[in-house]
Amino acid sequence: MVLPGSEARGRRDPRLVRVLARRGDRAVRRLARLAGGLLAALLLVALATYLAGEQVEVAVLRTVDDTGARHDTKLWVVDHDGAPWVRVARPERHWFQRLQRHPEIEIVRGGGAPQPVVAKPDASPEAKAALDAAFRAKYGATDWWYGVLLRRAAVPVRLEPRAE
Fold it and tell me: Measured between alpha carbons, how far is 109 from 112 in angstroms, rounded to an integer?
């Protein structure tokens, strides 16, 4: 609101300025509360997802890079057709790239001794369907949730025992 007689100078009513400032402060506070609530909700979902994923068997897959350095990756594992299987959610994952170059790896299950295995990826539709069912049976709704969040072009990997 412009004060009468001040049109030429462009001065505003100081009461209006104060009212607008208070409204702006309230809007900023509301927006900050909303953003904080959304962040808290996302953190809770992430924590719940992580904890749910750790409730059933989690194995350690030990891969080797081109320099010979070993890398441990925690993964879900299922037994199917006489062998353990893991599944990569996205083929560009580093651990999957390493096992494709160096398929002789190790798996550690239940805190036991490392078992030497040969990794054999199988992207056939039959393997995908069978392994999706096996993971769903073992890991339940958490497998579905991880699939929604993370899984793109999953590839099952058969881990065949090898002699050391």
Answer: 6
Please count the other Cβ atoms lying within 10 Å of the Cβ belonging to residue 120. Answer: 15
User: In sequence order, what are the residues at sequence separation of 6 or more whose Cβ sits closer than 8 angstroms to the Cβ of residue 101?
Assistant: 66
- d(CA 42, CA 48) in angstroms, rounded, equals 10
For residue 12, the 8-state DSSP code is: B
pTM over the 0.85 mark = no
Q: Give the CA angle between residues 46, 52, 53 to the nearest 5°.
A: 90
Query: If the chain, 164 residues long, is cut into consecutive pieces of 10 residues, what is the mean pLDDT of each piece?
Result: 53 71 72 75 63 72 97 96 95 96 97 96 96 92 79 90 83
What DSSP element (H or E) covers 71? strand 70-76
Q: Which helix (H) or strand (E) holds 62?
A: strand 58-64
Which residue bears the tokens 């994952």?
93
For 44, the 3-state DSSP assignment is helix
